[in-house]
Structures are given as structure tokens and as C-alpha cells.
Amino acid sequence: MRRVVGLILWLVLVAFLVTVVLLIHPFGYPPSDMDDYIIENAQEETGNNNVVASVVFDYRGLDTLGEATILFTAVTGVLLLLRAEKRKEENS
Amino acid sequence: MLSKIVRTVANQLILFVLVFGLYVIAHGHLTPGGGFQGGAVIVSGVVMLMVAFSSQDLKKSLRERLLTIMESTGALIFAALAFAGLGTVFFYNFLVGTPIFGRIPPTGSNPGDFWTGGVIPLMNLAVGLKVVAGLSAVVLALALFARGEEIEE
Amino acid sequence: MEYIPLNFPFLAAALLAGVSFYILIFKRNLIKLIMGIAMMSSGVNLFIVALGYRAGGNAPIYTDVPEGPMVLPVPQALTLTSIVINVAVLALMLTMVVHIYRHTGDIDSKKSRILKG
Fold this sequence. Notes:
The complex is a heterotrimer of chains A (92), B (153) and C (117). Chain A has 92 residues and is mainly α. Chain A is 75% helix and 0% strand. Chain A has helices spanning 2-22, 34-46, 51-59, 61-81, 87-91. Chain A starts with a helix and ends with a helix. Chain B has five helices and no strands.
């Protein structure tokens, strides 16, 4: 009984996703106002040939700062969890 | 520990992987690439060394204290470069126009000049250092935990 | 102007997300759940990159670029951040599965849901 209800809900979800995808703009002709400004003026304002690197580190630098924080926190969490247990030897 | 042929080939190949990874990190402002991509290339070289030799032999060379110092240094350099342009805005590109990394390339298609880019090549190096140290520490800790030991202090 | 019928790259990303939703609802093994989450992150990253394609465009880098329009650079920057965050979260999930297996001896998700008082 629960499996049948779950299957019907999953089919509704997949139908919703497929319908939404068919109604977006046609593939290959996106609306682009902000990106036209960035492609035109990125070489004078940042002095850089790589437009993607100047977007990652200069125009949207706060996102990269947050991502560096997440990487640091995840590495700290993994190294904290993987310590071998030593308490059993001290209590005996 | 695998056979002698695999160990010899891994010893010779790690040099080329290291040079290619450093090239991808250092030329991040001229060609596709940058800090995160070059860091992933070097970590795959470290994983190759861990498969060829056993992870207990690598535990003596890569100590945990050195890896955490490297990662914290990378994060601190990134934050210091972000705070250094605080005179105008947070994250201001204050090196455009000065003789260090400050030339402006001609508009349109051109062969790249290395001393361009402002503060971005230094940020690439800081992020690359952070990714290499962090991900290789995670991989080493996971491989050692499966045998019942822990990563050394 | 020629259009690709049915917006095929967007449809592929939507089907990837649909298959990963099936895995997340109906499977009970913990390792299969982690693989489903990794598949969903691949589908979402593909969708974000495919949103910014211009027909007949070149890579957005000015070093020796041929003539023509350029692809949009902002979705590629967002995908870079998303991939790194997915790697970090996946590493944390795998260490938690290792700990659960060591403490309860089973990777079935129904048996490790009981909190012992």
C-alpha cells in the first residue's frame, strides 16, 4: 500500500520536472544582460584575460570566501571524527 | 605494497604529475584552470603514491602537523588579500596599475602576458595550497582508519 | 535559427534528478543512498552549465580566441563552487557511515535508526 502511494507521488514529481524543463527558453539562446556587460568590460577593470577567473575571484569574491570556509570546516570535521578510540585501554 | 615494476614507475611518474599540476595553478589567469582544478590534479598524484606504496609507509613522510599548518597558511593568505583592499571596498583589486602584476592587456584577442591580472594570481596560489593540504589529509585519514590505526601527530 | 527539439540537454538533467529521487525514496542500504546523492549533484551541475550555452560560441577566455560570440561565464563560476561543496559534504557523509558500521555492525538504515537510551 505504501509502495503504491510512493510510486504515484514519484511519477507526479518526474512529470512536474519534465513539464517545467520544456517551458524554459530554447537551448542555445539565453537571455543575457549582465553577462554582456561582464564580457565587454572585464579586460579593462580587472586586467585579466580569463573572464571566468575574474568572475570567481573579483566580481563574485564573497562566494569564494564562503566556499573556502566550508572546505576548511569539512576537513576539520573529518580529521576530528577519525581518531582511534583509546579510552578503553585507560579505564581497564 | 605492489610489485617492483609498479613502484618504480610510480616513482618516475610523480614528478610529471607535480609539474603539470603546478603549471595549471600558476597559469590560472591566462588559460582555463586555476586554484581548485590544479589542486585536484596534485591530489590525484598523491593518491597514486598511496596505492603503489602502502599507506603506512606514507604516514612517516606526511605528518598531520605539517598538513594543517599548510592549510591554515593558505586560508590566512586568502583572507589577508581580501582585507588589504579595504580602503575602497572589501575585496577590491588594488594591484591594477602598479608594477607587480599590474599591466592591462590590449582589448580583443591577444597572446597572453604573464604579469597581468592584479591580485588574482596570488589568490590562485593560496587556494591551491589549501586544497592540496586539505584533501590529501582527508584521503590519508580515511585509508589509515580502515586498518585500525590513526594518523600520527 | 535552428532549435534542438525538446530541449534535450535540459531533459537529460531532469531525468538524472528523477532517477536519483527514486533511489532516495525506495532504497535502504546506506552506501546506495550516498551514491544517489552524488548522482543528483551531477544532474544539477549539468543543468546549471547547460543554461549558459550560446549557439556557436567560444570559451570565454581572451587568449588567442577565434571570431564569434562567447558563452556566458557566470554559470560556470557558480558550478565551480557547487562541485567543491559537494566534495566536502560527501567526505563528511562517508566518515559517518564508517562510524555507524563500526558501532552497530550493519549498514541497513532501518536498524540504525533506534536511539539507545
